[in-house]
Amino acid sequence: MNKLITIERHFVEEQKRHPQATGELTDLLYDVAFAAKLVRREVVRAGLADILGMTGTTNVQGEEVKKLDLFANERIINAIGQHGRFALMGSEENEGTIIPPKNETGRYVLLFDPLDGSSNIDVNVSVGTIFSIYRLTGDDPKKADINDCLQKGSRQVAAGYVIYGSSVMMVYTTGHGVHGFTYDPTIGEFLLSYENITTPARGKYYSINEGSTEQLNEPTIGFLDWLKKEDEATGRPYSTRYIGSLVADFHRNLLTGGVFIYPATKKHSEGKLRLMYEANPLAFICEQAGGRATNGSKRILDIEPADLHQRTPLYIGSREDVIVAEEFERGER
């Protein structure tokens, strides 16, 4: 019989490996896992609960808000904010910071994308929740402000995502490897299914919206041409796999090898993905699994943020593939 390890037990065992740990981060991660269960419950029954479709409003990004976006956002804020473990929270759906109902003792900041890929929810495509956790820069939770949120990705103490697909998985890191858990609805628990995930050094898939080829810059077009050329030594040509949900494309490439590309374009010179809510947490996970993440010229985790909703180009995935992308961006190929 296989040994079953729940996510709670795994958190506790990981905590024991670090004698200096207080257990606070363990509690934070378990709060996130609990919130994910609530979101998962609504995602799988969305069509029955009349929470598909649009709300008729737009978010801070200027995008139409799906009903399920709003629902997931509220569930996460309510489920996590009431425990007093976070001094501040930030969501892709909210313009400014969120002060949780109880924040007097919280010494951490939570940033999250409540439902990445939600434009696909009406057609039953995988979506996900992405999150990252930072420590406060000061000692007094009552004095926490937006500067506590605007920290470089290299200062994350934990990051992860939950993917709601044919099965529900939570993948996370605290800087000591990457671990994945699959949700078992019969017992209501996340069970360890992937321990110490390592992404292949070179992949076999590339993920990009090639419908926007006319908007791409020459270095990106050169990299795509390279990926499509036949070369036995490097396993080319690569196959295209593009779901259109960042978390789903990233998850596949993390496990099987590949590169996800959302570059700067002629129309969007700063890129479109959010540094704080999407790029930073996934970059932390990717690097911990042996991969690489860059904006084309700079390591994602080294970017100094200036705004909660700052955007960035993103090349992320298998290390060798991302290095080639950077070489094209620098004009070395």
Give an account of the 3D structure.
This protein has helices at residues 7-16, 24-43, 67-81, 146-149, 218-228, 246-256, 275-288, 319-329; strands at residues 54-58, 64-66, 86-91, 108-116, 127-135, 156-164, 168-173, 178-184, 189-194, 205-207, 239-240, 258-262, 273-274, 292-294, 311-312, 314-317. It has a seven-stranded mixed β-sheet with strand order 3-4-5-6-7-8-9, sandwiched between helices. It has a five-stranded mixed β-sheet with strand order 11-10-12-16-14, sandwiched between helices. By secondary structure, the protein is of the alpha+beta class. 29% of the residues lie in helices and 24% in strands. The protein has two domains: 7-194, 2-Layer Sandwich (Fructose-1,6-Bisphosphatase, Chain A, domain 1); 205-329, 3-Layer(aba) Sandwich (D-Maltodextrin-Binding Protein, domain 2), CATH 3.40.190.80. The protein contains eight helices and 16 strands.
Q: Quick gist of this model?
A:
By secondary structure, the protein is α+β, with helices and mostly antiparallel strands. Helices cover 29% and strands 24% of the residues.
Strand content: 15-25%
**Any idea what the CATH architecture of the largest domain is?**
2-Layer Sandwich
- Write down the Rg: 19 Å
What is the helix fraction of residues, given as a range? 25-40%
Assembly status = single chain
CATH topology (level 3) name of the largest domain: Fructose-1,6-Bisphosphatase, Chain A, domain 1
Strand arrangement in the largest pleated sheet: 3-4-5-6-7-8-9
- Provide the CATH superfamily of the largest domain: Fructose-1,6-Bisphosphatase, subunit A, domain 1
Low-confidence stretches: 51-57
Order of helices and strands: HHEEHEEEHEEEEEHEHEEHEEEH
